Amino acid sequence: MPFLDRTRLTATKTCLLTLIALVAAFHVYVAYVMATPKVGEAYRLYFIERRSIPWRTLLSLEPYRLGERMDFADERWAPQLIDFSVSEQFGMRMANNRAEVVLNLADSKPRELVIEGTAAVTDKLPRQRVAVSLNGQKIGELSYESRDIRSDVMTIPAAALLDDRHLLVIEFSARKQKPWLPGKQHVPYGIAALTLRASSAPAP
Amino acid sequence: MPLPNDGAHHWRVSLPFVLLCVTVSRLIVLATAAYFAKDGDIGRAMCQWDCGWYSGIMARGYQPEANAHPAGDAANWAFFPFFPYMTRWLAALSGVDVLLTALAMNAVAFVGTCAMLYQYFLRIVGRDSAAFAVLLFAFCPLSLYFSAPYTESLFLFSIVAGVLLLQDGRFLMAGLAGAVASATRNSGFLFGFIYLAYAWHAWGGWRGMKALSPLNLRIVLGFLLVPVGLELYALFLHSLMGDALAFSHVQRAWGRVFSNPVTALWSGLAAPGYLVRIRVVMVLIALFGAWKAWRWGKRGEAIFCALSILLPASTGSLDSLQRYVATSLAFVFVLAWIAMRLPRARWVLLGCFALTTPWMVLRWTEGWYALP
Questions:
Q1: Do A30 and B252 count as a contact with CB atoms less than 8 A apart?
Q2: Is there a contact between A48 and B73 if contact means CB atoms under 8 Å apart?
Q3: What global pTM score does this model have?
């Protein structure tokens, strides 16, 4: 019977199209779920953003109160200084062209960052430039032309703190430049930091 | 050289022979493990390396947080659920120990896989070469992984079953087989490439694709089913610990980061020690198998073979690559080519394999570091 055949065909098509729509909607939902993980900050930093801070360190960070002076030579902060060298007379230099500091904020969000430090400036490398990022967003650049120790104040844009994060990752990236030092792929050192302070008000 | 295409006639004739030989190969592996097992516990003897993760899932399910490895960053999320949960349910039903259940299930799945591989290669290289290729595969040292409590056996079973279903034009069932593969291993979704190649063949090009026929709708639905296994696992992980992609993110605990696979293979060749080089050579042999698959008109399978090997190689680590080679189908294509083109060498190879495999099983039960 042609009519029954046509009806059966239409019913089969409708059924298959409905199933296709359902499975496609399921794919869209799963893609949304994959794109919006509901995890803690430590997990996000370590597993998703793949920051170089060790997992155990992230889980046991010393709380940082705004305005507190973070002395890089103080052993208390040592686990939170990632890819910095051991303490030297001029501070702690970056072990490579990239280093990080993690702060576990105990209270409200900071408005500015004060970095006290110097840089390895030589005759062959008369200038060092170090980009500073906060949670992946660039907030400024430090430029050194002498070995003098100085303080730089950086305003933290609100956009860098939009989400409800308590872990701040301050990233220092030294610009690669020529001439390269013999035996090294990139110019190391960048900044040699002494202290760092994040505060909600201008420095006293 | 024209390839034979009269498989259906010989299938019934040789199937019992193939099944017998493959069963003997599994008995050799298990008997060797039983002989060298401490206290005669064959389940424990075969449970090495990643099996610890699987047996943990069988016993306690998935971890809500990462706390394993010295760095405390590892968790069992990297291990897909189909194999451990299937084992757990079968063990609960049968009342047999989970590890013994896993060994039995994998052995049965491997025999089934070999029977299907015979049928598949019958249409490509003919009866004699197909039978020999399956024999070589069943007795090769890599077949160890199809007896251990690992995912390899169920994974290859679902892939080969899917390919045969595609050949028969049963696209919905093939899609379900793909869903099982994607719930078994992270590379299971690559079955979609094989699926697309057969779908393209069924459509006969762009023109056939446009028609809104029931066949076309089944093809589309079957294709959409392939990643469902992986997606269900992702949803489970999201409900457990909040990250649907945790199976990928946790790879960091094993030092895996995405990189150029060619660079990884090249540095493997230059690395000290012969074990890494052997892995690289195996990858090159498997890529040759992928090329042979392409030449034999199996385009989807060729892409699957190549990606199944290059994807793990692109994680910057060559560890466990031999297991990816074993399950990539490419290795069986190489064996089929040897069986067809090198009639004398295949006997020598079979002898070498038959002698080497028990030694490999012994080393496996000792926990040799080269084998995870």
A1: no
A2: no
A3: 0.88
